[in-house]
């Protein structure tokens, strides 16, 4: 069994228009990769297709989680397989506290007669709250209700730390964050790093990658990965802009 998230020749449409035009990408477990590229190149689409958003139609290709093709699975099934997507625009779920939401989410991934013991859950969520330098009362707040943009992003990392997915995709987790919030969010992602965890960090700017140092950087342009390289590639993109990618393609 291969220990990696593998995207093979992935093509996907939305509303009849092809957005992903043959994406090939491998994120081995234990590594954090960055996905960069100009706006509209298909980065968010890729993350949503991997997570199983039904708005997107896959016409070709495979998404393999540790060797298993997940494309026939519903989004919640993929989540149980260990895929996690932090959205570019997190939704609000009024009436459900963060603590209850996470307890339900954890138990949905376990057998029916094997709910997580209350103390185990409490310790897990508190440890994540502390990693994010957050006040403990946050877990009683309703999910994202009245949260600022930065708080929503922090909450998505809290979920990541508690749910412990095998592979996470973080879509523009840095957008709208000031430097302090950026550091805290990065601290959370770095705490999740380890041999059993792989991540695809989607970002338009190099700034986030000063804090979450990627093992590899990929550049997406017009629905394909057009360049991959070491972390220095992100700095090069920052200096030269994306025009040199457009010229090279
Ligand atoms: P990125 O995240 O790289 O900025 P997106 O994946 O958001 O790019 O968008 C890629 C292209 O797909 C854009 O042209 C966008 O307008 C289009 N697109 C994405 N999602 C939808 C949707 N749900 N309906 C219509 N067009 C979409
Ligand atoms: Mg996007």
Describe the structure.
By secondary structure, this protein is an alpha/beta fold. It has one domain (4-248): P-loop containing nucleotide triphosphate hydrolases (Rossmann fold), CATH 3.40.50.300. 34% of the residues lie in helices and 29% in strands. The protein is built from 8 helices and 12 strands. It has helices at residues 43-51, 75-80, 98-108, 118-131, 149-163, 179-192, 232-240, 243-248; strands at residues 4-14, 17-28, 32-36, 57-65, 68-69, 83-86, 93-97, 142-143, 167-171, 198-202, 216-221, 224-229. The chain has a 6-stranded mixed β-sheet, sandwiched between helices. Strands 2-1-4-5 form a 4-stranded antiparallel β-sheet, with helices on one face. Strands 7-8 form a two-stranded antiparallel sheet. The protein starts with a strand and ends with a helix. 36% of the residues are buried. The mean pLDDT is 92. Adenosine-5'-diphosphate is lined by residues 14-15, 19, 37, 39-45, 55.
What's this, in brief?
By secondary structure, this protein is α/β, with parallel strands linked by helices. About 35% of the residues lie in helices and about 30% in strands.
């Amino acid at each position: 069994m291969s220990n990696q998230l593998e995207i093979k020749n992935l093509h996907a449409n939305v509303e009849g228009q092809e957005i992903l035009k043959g994406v090939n990408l491998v994120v081995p477990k234990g590594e954090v990769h960055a996905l960069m590229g100009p706006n509209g190149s298909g980065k968010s689409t890729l993350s949503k297709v991997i997570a199983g958003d039904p708005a997107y139609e896959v016409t070709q290709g495979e998404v393999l989680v540790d060797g298993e093709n997940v494309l026939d699975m519903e989004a919640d099934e993929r989540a149980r397989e260990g895929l996690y997507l932090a959205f570019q625009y997190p939704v609000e779920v009024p009436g459900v506290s963060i603590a209850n939401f996470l307890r339900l989410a954890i138990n949905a991934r376990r057998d029916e007669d094997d709910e997580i013991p209350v103390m185990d859950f409490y310790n897990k969520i508190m440890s994540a709250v502390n990693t994010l330098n957050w006040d403990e009362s946050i877990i009683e707040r309703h999910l994202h209700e009245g949260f600022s943009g930065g708080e929503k992003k922090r909450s998505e990392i809290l979920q990541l730390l508690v749910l412990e997915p095998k592979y996470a995709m973080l879509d523009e987790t840095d957008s709208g964050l000031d430097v302090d919030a950026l550091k805290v969010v990065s601290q959370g992602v770095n705490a999740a790093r380890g041999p059993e965890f792989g991540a695809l960090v989607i970002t338009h700017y190099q700034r986030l990658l000063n804090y979450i140092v990627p093992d590899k950087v990929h550049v997406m342009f017009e629905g394909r990965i057009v360049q991959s390289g070491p972390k220095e590639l992100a700095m090069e993109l920052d200096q030269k802009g994306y025009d040199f990618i457009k010229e090279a393609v």
